[in-house]
Amino acid sequence: MWTCGIAMATQQATPAIASSAISALVEMPSEARAPAAAIVAEAERKGVAPAKAADFRSLTGKGVTGTIDGRPVSLGNAALLKELNIEPGPLADQAQSLRRDGQTVIFVVIDRRAAGLLGVADPVKPTTPDALRQLRKEGLRIVMLTGDSRQTAEAVARALEIDEIRAEVLPDQKGRIVRELRAQGRVVAMAGDGINDAPALAEAAVGIAMGTGADVAMESAGVTLVKGDLAGLVRARRLSRATMGNIRQNLFFAFIYNALGVPIAAGVLYPFFGLLLSPIIASAAMSFSSVSVIGNALRLRRQVL
Q1: How far apart are CA 37 and CA 23, in angstroms?
Q2: What kind of architecture, by CATH, is found in domain 3-121?
Q3: What class is the 128-233 domain?
Q4: Could you tell me the pTM of the whole model?
Q5: With 50 as the cut, is the pLDDT of residue 87 above it?
């Protein structure tokens, strides 16, 4: 559940315009819908009624722009301010403070002036730190790809003890980073929940989507965690390893069984010992082979995950 804090320079932004600006984020066709919902909920909690927004435009990886009551309004990150050639002014220090706390900062620009900022945060699920520890214990290297600022990413990485971070990554760069890692000979599993994650999920050896995320992400991934909980990722990995081990055992048993049984059934021992395998015994033996494989596979039901 995303949470939001709002700081507005009231001399530049009326409450209606401020609320309209933040509610416009709901139109963003991406993973930003989750924080946008938190922003709008916070505005409603403060009793601010939005005005109607027009000329809406989404700038991928940067923010959104539009017009409210005839005044140009933009919301986005520092990259958007740079593109619009707007200085954050005194809001820069407050933005830095929010980033150090692990919050994502969204600047609000009205009439081409920085009017305020929003601090949104997605609290870490209680099960996430333990899930990441388990993955590291099993020899995996954790890399976080995020479009957030480096300060925000570093704050989250410190809290979760993440090995490596790639911050300020634009949506089209995630897939390229996955390709680079695979080119280094690494087996890459990518977990994500947004539209912007879909290309990277498709590029990874194993794409893992969150069931709480975008449909296109789930379509691009090979595995979907229904509850969006990384603890499910730990269980899925252990189950997959146990399944592959079980398959190898069954192949080994089948190979040995047939390597011994088929020559005997063909009469290879008859010239030396006068032994032939009765068709009844051969049929029972083949049935037992199938039963043994099924029985071994059913052991997965008792696998501790």
Answers
A1: 8
A2: 3-Layer(aba) Sandwich (3.40)
A3: alpha beta
A4: 0.68
A5: yes
